[in-house]
Automatic annotation (TrEMBL):
The record marks Y142, K189 as: Important for catalysis. The gene is leuB. This is 3-isopropylmalate dehydrogenase. One of its GO terms (biological process) is L-leucine biosynthetic process. PANTHER family: 3-ISOPROPYLMALATE DEHYDROGENASE. SUPFAM superfamilies: Isocitrate/Isopropylmalate dehydrogenase-like. Its EC number is 1.1.1.85. It comes from Gramella jeungdoensis. Keywords: Amino-acid biosynthesis, Branched-chain amino acid biosynthesis, Cytoplasm, Leucine biosynthesis, Magnesium, Manganese, Metal-binding, NAD, Oxidoreductase.
């Protein structure tokens, strides 16, 4: 298959993790005889610096014309520490999602057996956890009207949802539940928010089309607690934009690291694949960031084009790297491997050349090794 893939590495660790995802995709192309054509484009703080805009027109054009987009991360302390900045890297990502109509952000989470005892949570609480978060991505408070008063003493952000915006992601989430464990949990704050009451009303209505699905509801404050107390209760989680953003970072702790969580952002005509983490500026240039979220996002890209065997080859390589402790410091306190080491292991493994990696790097897996 020939695929035109727009690559948006972005800021901070974005370029480092995207480089590893590209290595994995190149290995897949070689092994399975596909042609993946990559076109780089800038977004975020780097794009502000180079082109004066966090989403230059040229980038949007490349994304519109591509079959799929692989995105790294955006954000820079220069802007994070300046609340009065007029132009911000994050606007690039938000505008891209909105322009391409990427309304559903799908964030799966499962547990690697080899990491169970490294989690901050008890093994019996997390063993077997397997759920997916459907986060609405192009509406809600991140996209509502916002303003700071002229005298700088008052500000507001409006949270607004339409029935159409709720319905389209709800159908995707119910369909996912149908092929999973048939449970869907709507997370909202309908005891307080009008938008949440609209969500609840619509979901109850839509659920009539999906009679085999066991539907339940949680208020977001309780959900934040339940994710840590009993994460096994979840199968498909459906929620609005900001709740999904916050809860998925919290949920990543269950897996062992946010550096493991991939996502797919799906629209009618476009699809973008992105790790859930940010630009982790403290790690920029240190070659320590976990590339697995970006690599697993590339696997979700392959799934999107029905290249399931290829996606599975990436996931198997990831599982093997974790099993062998060939992981970055966030997952492992003894064997510290670099971002590029992990990426090289994955591509070698995909090409059936596991031993090449050990020999090339003179690695004795029986010892603590710092590269
Ligand atoms: N999708 C995106 O591009 C996102 C961008 N951001 C932006 O990123 C910048 C930093 O934001 P933070 O709140 O610090 O969130 P962050 O996700 O960049 O980092 C939070 C913490 O998570 C861990 N972490 C993140 N990615 C990791 C990786 N690949 N490997 C190992 N550990 C990892 C680190 O401990 C880090 O301190 C900000 O400018 C923010 O606006 C934040 C979230 C998402
Ligand atoms: C710019 C932010 C909305 C990005 C973010 O935190 C996310 O999408 O998870
Ligand atoms: Mg986030």
């Amino acid at each position: 298959m020939k695929l035109n893939i727009a690559l948006l590495p972005g800021d901070g660790i974005g370029p480092e993790v995207i480089q590893q995802a590209v290595k994995a995709l190149d290995a897949i192309a070689e092994k399975y005889n596909h042609e993946f054509i990559f076109t780089y484009a800038s977004i975020g703080a780097i794009a502000i610096k180079e082109a004066g805009s966090p989403l230059p027109d040229a980038t949007l054009k490349i994304c519109t014309e591509a079959d799929a987009i692989l995105f790294g991360a955006i954000g820079d302390p220069k802007y994070d520490n300046n609340p009065t900045a007029k132009i911000r890297p994050e606007e690039g990502l938000l505008k891209l999602r909105k322009s391409l109509g990427l309304f559903a952000n799908i964030r799966p989470l499962s547990i690697y057996d080899a990491l169970i005892h490294q989690s901050n949570l008890k093994a019996e609480v997390i063993k077997g956890v397997d759920f997916v978060i459907f986060r609405e991505l192009t509406s809600g408070i991140y996209f509502g009207e916002k303003e700071l008063s002229a005298d700088g003493t008052e500000a507001f952000d409006v949270c607004k949802y339409t029935v159409e915006e709720i319905d389209r992601i709800a159908h995707l989430a119910f369909k996912s539940a149908q092929i999973r464990r048939k449970k869907l949990t709507l997370i909202d704050k309908s005891n307080v928010l009008e938008t949440s009451r609209l969500w609840r009303k619509r979901i109850i209505e839509i659920s009539k089309n999906y009679p085999t699905i066991n539907l339940d509801f949680l208020f977001v404050d309780n959900a934040a607690m339940q994710l840590i107390l009993n994460p096994k209760q979840f199968d498909v989680i459906l929620t609005e934009n900001m709740f999904g953003d916050i809860l998925s970072d919290e949920a990543s702790v269950i897996s062992g690291s946010i550096g493991l969580l991939a996502s797919a952002s799906i629209g009618i005509n476009s699809a973008m694949f992105e790790p859930i983490h940010g630009s982790f500026p403290q790690a920029k240039g240190k070659n320590i960031a976990n590339p697995l979220a970006a690599v697993l996002s590339a696997a979700m890209l392959l799934d999107h084009f029905q290249l399931h065997e290829e996606a599975e080859a990436i996931r198997t390589a990831v599982e093997k790297s974790i099993e062998l402790n060939i992981t970055t410091p966030d997952l492992n306190s003894t064997n510290h491997f670099s971002t590029t080491n992990v990426g090289s292991f994955l591509s070698d493994f995909i090409l059936d050349d596991e031993n090449t990696f050990y020999n090339k790097n003179n690695i004795d897996l029986g010892q603590s090794t710092i590269i």
